[in-house]
Amino acid sequence: MKKDLQTLEGRMRDSEEANALQPVSLDLRKTVPWIIFVLFFAVLNETVFVVSTPSIAAELALKPSEVSLVLTSFMIIFGTGSIVYGKLSDMYSLKKMVMIGLLIYGGGSLLGFLAHRYYPAVIAARILQGIGGSAIPTLLMIMITRYFKSRDRGKMFGIVGSTVALSEGMGPVIGGFISERLHWSFLFIIPLFTLLSIPFFLKTLPEEQPRGGKADFIGAVLFVAATALLILYLTDSRWPYLVISLILYGGFAVHIRRVEEPFIELSMLTNGRWVRGLLSAIALFGTMAGLLFMVPQMLSQVHLMTAGAIGWVMFPGAISLVFFGVYGGTLVDRKGYSRVYYIGLALYISSLLLLSILAGAAPWLLSAVLVAAYVGFSFLKTSLATGVSQTLTEQEAGVGMGMLNLVSFLSEAAGMALVGKMLADGVLEIPLIPIITASSAHSYSNLFFSFAIIIALGAVLYFSAFRRSR
């Protein structure tokens, strides 16, 4: 997700004292089922399209680089939108923001279903889904902090984390089943179920008076536009995209120096350990997103598997996040985040090297190796988030962890775009590993090996920042 709710949890807890003044308390038994329901269908949209990208590419005659935009367009908006909604919730009624998010999410989903034969409309629908969907996890976390009693919040944060992991794990299976039995366009119908929650939230959430404040919308628009054009350049290699992107980034840099509450705080860049932690996160989330995009392409092209079968190959690894995500957090508390990082690093790099060697092997064997990759990623993500949080003061925590969340999403989008571009151009179709006999598997094998190198470089940055930490 490709998304890190621990960062949102930290931000919510930082504001707990201010929100304690709210007199409203929600009924746990009535509210929890609806929170689980809405969150499940919101987060599902992050992974449900992954295994269907080969089918989408075949039907719309798209290159891997082009079909990657079906995933990356959603992630870019989802990542930046989570920060924007967090700020807006401090200015406007939470109830209205939830309603707006759900309606935009549903509208984008309906557009995607009705206009699925037109590629630009599919991308527009995914952008709208990102705009609306990004409201849901953010606002639900704020809702927990603002309206639940302090003794219930830890339990609720745990429920949220488990729901997110379950949704991400079920996404490939549900997406593959629907694509194979019906059609990939029906994946756009799934988010419409969230609209069923509107009557409940309208009745339950209190009316709030606008509290005022400032949101750096200009900065957000400049940053999102610049990033989107950079992703387009990585996808299509057209120089105008890069030039305009750099111009917009320049305008963004000038703008945030002139506003009181900028979208991104430049002062944070003086924190060297925090910056190195973010760079390490870029390597981690970028490679994992590239892997998630690449594996379905490989299983389709090399092993000629259907979307439904691909979903089941990926399911054991994805669902392992439900169990090992919680276990990794417990292990961090007991052994320290650096030790957990070492364990995750060994698992993740080993699995990438094995995938490189076994790219043409039996799908069941690849599925087993993917479990190790998912577990390693889960440990790395948990320990990295914990380590980065230790570099921040109490005043910097909200901005610093929010930036980690944003960087994670953008890295995922860039990782998928780069992998799509490299597969489309065939730049790695070189027989480097003798054991790989199928020529169609060379690119995938070499990409897995490249990912292992990138993770090793990210680990060097991590060690330089946290080697003396617990």
Characterise this structure.
The protein is an all-alpha fold and 470 residues long. It is built from 19 helices and no strands. The chain folds into two domains: 1-215, MFS general substrate transporter like domains (Growth Hormone, Chain: A), CATH 1.20.1250.20; 270-470, Growth Hormone, Chain: A. Helix 6 packs antiparallel against helix 12 (217-236), helix 10 (150-181) packs antiparallel against helix 15 and helix 14 runs parallel beside helix 18 (397-425). It starts with a helix and ends with a helix. Keywords: Cell membrane, Membrane, Transmembrane, Transmembrane helix, Transport. It is found in: Cell membrane. Pfam families: MFS_1.
Quick overview of this protein structure:
The chain crosses the membrane at residues 34-55, 67-85, 97-115, 121-144, 156-178, 184-202, 214-233, 239-256, 277-295, 307-328, 340-358, 364-382, 403-424, 444-465. The chain is an all-alpha fold.
What's the layout of helices and strands?
Elements: H1 5-14, H2 16-19, H3 28-47, H4 53-60, H5 64-67, H6 69-88, H7 94-114, H8 119-133, H9 135-147, H10 150-181, H11 198-204, H12 217-236, H13 239-256, H14 272-301, H15 307-335, H16 337-357, H17 363-390, H18 397-425, H19 442-466
